[in-house]
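Inputs:
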Amino acid sequence: MSVLVLADHDNASLKPATLNAIAAAAKLGPVHVLVAGHGCDGAAAAAAQAPDVAKVLKADAAPYAHPLAENVAPLVAGLARGYGHVLAAATTVGKNIMPRVAALLDVQQISDVLQIDAADTFVRPIYAGNALATVRSGDAIKVITIRGTAFPAAAATGGSAPIETVGDAGDAGLSSFLRSELSKSERPELTAARIVVSGGRGMANGENFKTYLEPLADKLGAAVGASRAAVDAGFVPNDYQVGQTGKVVAPDLYLAVGISGAIQHLAGMKDSKVIVAINKDEEAPIFQVADFGLVGDLFKLVPELTAALPPRK
Amino acid sequence: MKILVGVKRVIDYNVKVRVKADGTGVETANVKMSMNPFDEIGVEEAVRLKEKGIATEIVAVSMGPAAAQETIRTALAMGADRGILVQTDAELQPLAVAKLFKALVAKESPQLVILGKQAIDDDCNQTGQMLAALLGWAQGTFASKVAPADGRLEVTREVDGGLETLSIALPAVVTTDLRLNEPRYASLPNIMKAKKKPIETLTPDALGVDPAPRLVTLKVAEPAKRLAGVKVKDVAELVDKLKNEAKVI
Ligand SMILES: Cc1cc2nc3c(=O)[nH]c(=O)nc-3n(C[C@H](O)[C@H](O)[C@H](O)COP(=O)(O)OP(=O)(O)OC[C@H]3O[C@@H](n4cnc5c(N)ncnc54)[C@H](O)[C@@H]3O)c2cc1C
Ligand SMILES: Nc1ncnc2c1ncn2[C@@H]1O[C@H](COP(=O)(O)O)[C@@H](O)[C@H]1O
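Outputs:
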């Protein structure tokens, strides 16, 4: 049976995590991707180019201009009846819409899947990733969000799947989009970056993120992240938060600067390939997960590190 | 408006959770339990709406074993008016919790239900969205700001790219994110007063809901441990390790 993937996109292109969801779906069966948007030819064309995709379903209508759960969920639920599995990446869009789909279908969603053991058996993290549960679903349609870092992205180009237009389910009339304040950055996207440099409460203020961390990130071509404490204190915007209740990242290199290493933070980064910690407290728990720990004052060490790094290729 | 607030009893966020040796779950005996942190934020938001004269009554709801009464008492001490315990020792998964909330909504007719964005034990992040679906209501999830305006709600949401603001119709379900507010501590006089506030006890049966789990947990395991790393003496050694040993720069 085919698998339906709900694309996360901005109408023009796919969000990178959609390719991780496609990779997970491909383990379960032929993949159909639903692009629900408005003026979303760009995103639909991008989905059609992924070689793992057998068919793209395009629902192009005004109620889908923004991914409002009240409008998108009935569309997905309506299409879902022809599929064994419905997947989305566990992005804020997937997390917002998929449980609504699951409830409309009277099924229990499986959140944040890390591993697919069988068509009905999945591994997912609980308790901030301190335990991994293997669960089996008896529901006829499996509604799943997947953790992007657990499934390497599917190839983005080389395919040419057909694009089929599907009708729209209309406007539920319950919600409307007013405005957004999106962080603008020239840097790689946090969850897709090869290197992430994160700052915590030890950064002391937002200005220091600019003075100390950004030059380091520039030199490494890295994304910038943060702990909850740094976000709550207003040093950086909410979308920088890495952790149990923020973003999950697993880059090749993660540098934690002035971060103590609370379990909620570790939940979002401990699957990184190499972890470096800079902290003045040699007892900080972050050193228990760090491959390389540097004890000392970040305001001295970060500029030194930035200067010592080879120029960016 | 009347507000229903979900308050789940969970293992305290400071506890280092341990997986049981037999792989059936995590150790819960003699472990500190607390209100789910996102639900504290939910109670606080409801109390603030009442202090502003927008909310008229706050009903704190917990579902689970008899001990969940304590969690309701905490909500009452923060300012909720009364409590409902849906008592069961059975495992409750989000779809069942949403169905139970739906039955309570039919009984209580609130204008707003506030739940946490995620319970820090199951980390599901589902119940609010499911409840909104079952009721056919609007949902304002991962809220960092909630403002009533013209008979609707303006909800600012924490999304991957930053923030987005929606206007949603009432009645609605809102789920809280960390930046919505900072929950208050209950004062001693309020803790005393809370002891006299009423708590009604119901059962899934009485609410006409079959809460049987849909997912069977086959196994709970510890994640692979990271190998202990090393402390480097200076920046030069760090750069050398990253370049020549780890080969990541
Ligand atoms: C429900 C819930 C959800 C949560 N979700 C998340 C989440 O998703 N992500 C997250 O990160 N947290 C989360 N938290 C918060 C978490 O528990 C910690 O409070 C938080 O991660 C601490 O951030 P921090 O390490 O920056 O601050 P702190 O713990 O205060 O640590 C600051 C560190 O900086 C060091 N330092 C200070 N000055 C210097 C200096 N000059 N040079 C070098 N080092 C210095 C200190 O030694 C210290 O180790 C959550 C908490 C709860 C209750
Ligand atoms: N047993 C419960 N009792 C009360 N509220 C609950 C219960 N389970 C879930 N909730 C609510 O639903 C939110 C999200 O839970 P979850 O979908 O399990 O992550 C929690 O923050 C609570 O507000």
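Remarks. Chain A has eight helices and 16 strands. Residues A 200-202, 227-230, 241-246, 258-260, 262, 264-265, 268, 279-281, 284, 297-299; B 13, 37, 120 surround flavin-adenine dinucleotide (ligand 1) (CB under 6 Å).
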